[in-house]
């Protein structure tokens, strides 16, 4: 396979994971990353001397792909888990523990739900109606709010499900797809009239001790892309930054990529291409040769958000937080309703004890601001966003001292929205791409935006490319009487 050249467009975790698989299989691979740094949504930097992620900070340890990648890089021993699994929700004016027995906010234990105090008495009284209501018809896909609201009431949606989903998508429950964002719950609910019974089934089937839910790396998850890139290079691949792909065109025997500025373009030829960029640039690149996929990709909406990281002296906290953080439902955080706009707070130095060990005198806190439709909140200058985050900590933790350092990271259009119909849309994209030899797509826009899901999509894309190259080389071997022909590259 050494004669084949594959280009991966996008140096986020999906592109890098795809490139690593290809490089390790002997393909000559070039990763083209448009920005000056690799990693995409994975990026870490120091604040007050402590490495705190600016984007993704943990990966699900209940799926194998992320951990497998780290193990494959020989870094299994480095993986660290959260020091606490407990988190809270700011509801009805107070911080309350997430009720036990819930799955992404959908309750299964009514006593635990009542004890948590997250819902009002009226909201709580509505929940058990699920046990007696007739089946909620669900022909095709429906929104999270429509289905869950119909079963257990709107308050469960507003005060539990949406904030938990908001942590992933920064989206709205009225728009998000039940099937695509809560696949396990949606599948269980198919066979049951009652949603509560369906979630009880999921809880029963879960192993009693499945181990920690999340994992990260000691210097931040933002170090993972660099480890992967080093592995690609070691396997003979090339990772380039500042190399924006502006055009992708199919040629008789492969692909031609136009890279760099319009005035001084560079042309790169490839036998196969993996497009691992967000939906909007993917749509632009696929437009000339796969217009059906491009149209579908153009319709995927993205939410913007910002992460405000504050580093405080430990002594600034009258009492050190015990849990990993808390979520703020839109009904509580909306600035129009008197909220401060902060939708989630992570006490990074509590969640990750290794950060505390780095400097016991510093507590790093990450505050997420902004969800779909809250663009005006994000149009405020950095100082105002930081002030909102400080006001949040003053109100909930009594922190009145100024932080020793603050940092605002904006993620414009950072999170794809898996809206109603998303799975069908992705199936249409894949069908169009499947009819285009030597092309594969990967990344957060498709089958899950968590890191393990992105890695899974990368592996699938790499497998598709390898199959194509193998069948192509087989043909070329046949043509040249058993001698592989050199490919034209660059
Ligand atoms: C703030 C934030 C926090 C998150 N937290 C978590 C978390 O804790 N755990 C978790 O599992 N997930 C988390 N996620 C989601 C997860 O990080 C992302 O879904 C995932 O990293 C996306 O990877 P990707 O490779 O698909 O895309 P990206 O990371 O977006 O990478 C795509 C890359 O393509 C490049 N690119 C775009 N256009 C071009 C072009 N034309 N030519 C060349 N390059 C191009 C971009 O510059 C970018 O580097 C978070 C996301 C955000 C925004």
TrEMBL record:
One example GO MF annotation: oxygen-dependent protoporphyrinogen oxidase activity
Domain Amine oxidase: 13-466
EC number per UniProt: 1.3.3.15
UniProt main location, coarse: cytoplasm
EC class (word): oxidoreductase
Catalytic activity: coproporphyrinogen III + 3 O2 = coproporphyrin III + 3 H2O2
Needed cofactors: FAD
Annotated pathway: Porphyrin-containing compound metabolism; protoheme biosynthesis
Single GO BP term: heme biosynthetic process
Alphabetic keyword roster: Cytoplasm, FAD, Flavoprotein, Heme biosynthesis, Oxidoreductase
Residues covered by region (Disordered): 471-490
InterPro entries for this protein: Amino_oxidase, FAD/NAD-bd_sf, Protoporphyrinogen_oxidase, Zeta_carotene_desat/Oxidored
Keyword presence, Flavoprotein: yes
GO terms under cellular component: cytoplasm
Locations listed in the record: Cytoplasm
Role according to the record: Involved in coproporphyrin-dependent heme b biosynthesis. Catalyzes the oxidation of coproporphyrinogen III to coproporphyrin III.
Stated family: Belongs to the protoporphyrinogen/coproporphyrinogen oxidase family. Coproporphyrinogen III oxidase subfamily.
Name of the protein: Coproporphyrinogen III oxidase
Lineage, broadest ranks: Bacteria, Bacillati, Actinomycetota, Actinomycetes, Streptosporangiales
